[in-house]
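User: Can you fold this complex?
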Amino acid sequence: MALFGSVRQRLYHALEQYDRTDPVSVVISSLVVGVIAINLIAIILESIPAYAAAYGPTFFLIELVSCIFFLIEYLLRVWVCVESPGPVNAATQAQGQPSNLGKRLRHMLKPMSIIDLVAFLPSILQVLMPGLDLRFLRILRLFRVFKLIRYFASLDILLNVLYDERKNLTGTFLIMLIVLTLAASALYVVERDVQPEAFGSIPQAMWWAMAALTTVGYGDAIPMTTLGKILGSVVTILGIGMVALPSGILAASFSDQLRSSRRSLEASVTEALEDGILTQDETERLRRMGNDLGLRPETLNELIENTAQLKARQSHSTVVLDMDGQTTQISGNGNE
Amino acid sequence: MALFGSVRQRLYHALEQYDRTDPVSVVISSLVVGVIAINLIAIILESIPAYAAAYGPTFFLIELVSCIFFLIEYLLRVWVCVESPGPVNAATQAQGQPSNLGKRLRHMLKPMSIIDLVAFLPSILQVLMPGLDLRFLRILRLFRVFKLIRYFASLDILLNVLYDERKNLTGTFLIMLIVLTLAASALYVVERDVQPEAFGSIPQAMWWAMAALTTVGYGDAIPMTTLGKILGSVVTILGIGMVALPSGILAASFSDQLRSSRRSLEASVTEALEDGILTQDETERLRRMGNDLGLRPETLNELIENTAQLKARQSHSTVVLDMDGQTTQISGNGNE
Amino acid sequence: MALFGSVRQRLYHALEQYDRTDPVSVVISSLVVGVIAINLIAIILESIPAYAAAYGPTFFLIELVSCIFFLIEYLLRVWVCVESPGPVNAATQAQGQPSNLGKRLRHMLKPMSIIDLVAFLPSILQVLMPGLDLRFLRILRLFRVFKLIRYFASLDILLNVLYDERKNLTGTFLIMLIVLTLAASALYVVERDVQPEAFGSIPQAMWWAMAALTTVGYGDAIPMTTLGKILGSVVTILGIGMVALPSGILAASFSDQLRSSRRSLEASVTEALEDGILTQDETERLRRMGNDLGLRPETLNELIENTAQLKARQSHSTVVLDMDGQTTQISGNGNE
Amino acid sequence: MALFGSVRQRLYHALEQYDRTDPVSVVISSLVVGVIAINLIAIILESIPAYAAAYGPTFFLIELVSCIFFLIEYLLRVWVCVESPGPVNAATQAQGQPSNLGKRLRHMLKPMSIIDLVAFLPSILQVLMPGLDLRFLRILRLFRVFKLIRYFASLDILLNVLYDERKNLTGTFLIMLIVLTLAASALYVVERDVQPEAFGSIPQAMWWAMAALTTVGYGDAIPMTTLGKILGSVVTILGIGMVALPSGILAASFSDQLRSSRRSLEASVTEALEDGILTQDETERLRRMGNDLGLRPETLNELIENTAQLKARQSHSTVVLDMDGQTTQISGNGNE
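Assistant: Here's the predicted assembly.
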């Protein structure tokens, strides 16, 4: 039982907490990502009629192996999820830790678990109930692409920024909808008699308006009257704004994220230098933080040196930096 | 009379001051947004000839009910507007509060009131004066889409940013106009003999120049001579600048807005912690502020904790945080 | 002579220093902008063969009057330029003020003066020397559009930003050139045998590469082979970077400009409040500064109030604000 | 030997350390850039069949001379590289300076050296081994464009920003890939029966999805069914996000770079003013720093004056600025 628990714990860490220094974790992650990638490529290639005819059995084999793999992965994740420490807050502390069953149910309702389930369930259903629409189920399999999200830490920042700016982005979307409706109606009025096949109704004109506002410009619907071209130009120029608005919103939010993470790094540097000595350990910790923020090593070094100089000058003392096996002393009275 | 006034006041709050916690307000807002949405969809679908023939009476009914609804809404808004506290400044204080009639006239001249009026007036005019051009009036009805602005608070930020940057955006527009004119003239000179149907005059060439500068590129007018293609490439590359300039301007402005609202939140956190205790009420207030700014709860919690730590360390005292029914003590001498 | 000098000085201010409160300045500016606008529209319309045939004499008259107008404007500007205070620095102080002739020569070599000269000179040359190529000279007239630059103050910020970022923008352009060359060569190798008419040489393939990289996509040259489509997709995705890079560069620069102008406004507010009183005059001056920066009045008021509160709290004194004929007292001990 | 060494050192500085004030360095740089430019233009023109036939010998001569030139340049760089001071860190100090051979080997493995080698090696191989595929080798010659990177200092900032944001940009690319796959599959399901030639398989539909997501919109594949157009519109609107995300990421990073370089300039100004005097030398040094950052002189002057005023006011002393041969005194008690 102790062994059993220790295996479960070991697997929990390997499956759920990606750790670059743990070989088991790296191997499992690479394996899962590899199976997903091969599977997706197979699904895409299978859609080519010639390939489907020639390599049908191979595609079926890949699908079968992948499904079994995803099923095992899903079951393992449900099994090990009880090792999760769970959220620590007043509510849970008051009512005690939930039971293993409760933990498992909560795990199974997480978005990522549902994605994991959807990854193999339709294919199994298809085998059990051959009467289902095969075509649609096949496409459902492409949702497996979402399983990749778990393995790309950098997506977190992007998703956070999109979440933070949801209100502004919704507002932009609403503005776009308003402009789209009005642009389509205007062109509908102007062009419907000349080109009834492209501007014969507002929904038809919306296809043009969408292509103009997003600056895609397919060229299948183009205003032909002079007034239509003038209105079309105005709409297209407004379209630039439709690209510029979300760019601006996201830029501001990214800037804010960068600034706050930069500030927390600076605070850590200041704290590490508070005792006048930057030990090897502290250097290592700061380096890891800087790396997580995507900082180049020379930028971090510069930040440390500047902070040390400031500290030395303000406290009229000497700061000792122990970096990369080399010790530097920065004196507060030196002429730099 | 007291009841009458209290109904008016009640309705004023429900109609003009959206409050998520007031069920009457939520119901009325949802109803108005719903009627507008159904009405807009009906207008768009009515423009499809087949639908107009098949469901004519239904569209007429929707229009009729909506118009009556918008009329009642307009009258109610005019009635309750006297409950508005009105701007408080030296001028109004000197001359006393305006009369109810004055308040109502001022209300009716507000942009949103005019939009409300335009939403139903043309349709009523059409019934009264059957000789008017029906087609044009029908399109006017689409301006009802602007009524939605009132119900999307997030549009305020976008409109503020656009207003703040009006000078820079106008400047960008002027640059675009200059580049457009010169590009069209250049291509007109180069291509007019080869493609008189697309570049036969400067206004014609402007249609191409607009599509190139905005990177839409419909493909109906394309330079064919070598010199024309070289010039066209230069214009298109300048077109990237035409997209980049407003993006940059808006990004800067959004960044500025975000920074100032963030700073005012930080000031509120600092103020709330001034007495060394963050009460449940203060936490609630900060949480609402953070929510209005679109902040994730964890970001706010981090901000509060960092500020508390700084406060504790600077004043060598203990800060007490009372958050989510859980009390935390942060000591200024602890090693974090 | 005194009258003569005073007229010149009056005219100098009206012509060269736009002042919204001076009616002469406003009338002259509006007149110049109006003549330029009418003239440009006439040139553009004249390029339409039908219009040129029908309204030839009218266009000639507009051209004649405009040219005489621009000539007089040019001569007046040369005449009044001696009123310019000129740059004040050590060099000019040492050698004394330059003579009037020197000042006029320097004025005539300024970019804006050359634009003014080019605006009417070709048309006059054309009358004097009828043997010149009429067509080309006609197009030269469109450079009059640059005369508008003088009247749009907001262009200054845009031009400054573009100038500040000239190095980064040049770098972006170089990257684009490298990607363009390599993309064109790759597609030339892959597609030349299949579509010799569109990818038969590298310069031909560059036309496609340019349309793909700038996301214009005319659709006249499209890769057809599978390898060509894959390479084309990669190039197009790199094209997004070509739009994103200058957007990012300009956004950063606009942000920096906004921040520094905001900071100088904050410094002015702090300075105005240093004596604990914000007089009517100081309010007026701050309001004008804020307006120049495109700030909404409520944003400025908020900034003033926040600064006053901070000042009051820090110095434990009372700050008096005299704004819009209303006097507010902010006490440092009040509970806000 | 001393002369030999001094020639090598002289050449090292001229070749590897571009210095605007050293005429030898400027001449050599211009010569190399010139040869690369002529060579690239020749390669591009040679791809036009008519030109290749008419000017074959000329293109051969240009190629021959360039290759010999690049060979000599390469050999010279290998020869002089031993003058490089090399990285100074604890590791190299411990084991002493490497030998000349070691230095040369390390130099030859640098990316820029490999680019230099690839620039002429294929052409020489082609002469030695006439059996190789000529066509492919000819295209390889275009990689010479990378030799230009050495001469454009401004590319450093761009490459640093791209490197700093590699994680976020990879994340964006992953999101794009997911959206691309799902969009292509959706349109494949909807349109495959109507347009099997454009949407007959997922890879085919991907070509459309790529053009829609990047807002290129060639117009060769366009959804035709109503459902296809609705889905296509959603994909296209998501495409705006695909442009906005990298713009936002790069904007944030450029902003951060600009801010940190601005801050280090401000620190230098503060330091230079610490003794209350800004000497001619210090002014010169600050001016050079400002120029490297792309600052306009007036912006720098303003920064210096503001800092001087602040310093004067805080220390109640007088600050002396010695700029451009002119001495200014700023007193801390002035009422400015």
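Confidence is low (pLDDT under 50) at residues 88-92 of chain B. The beta strands of chain B are 277-278, 318-323, 326-331.
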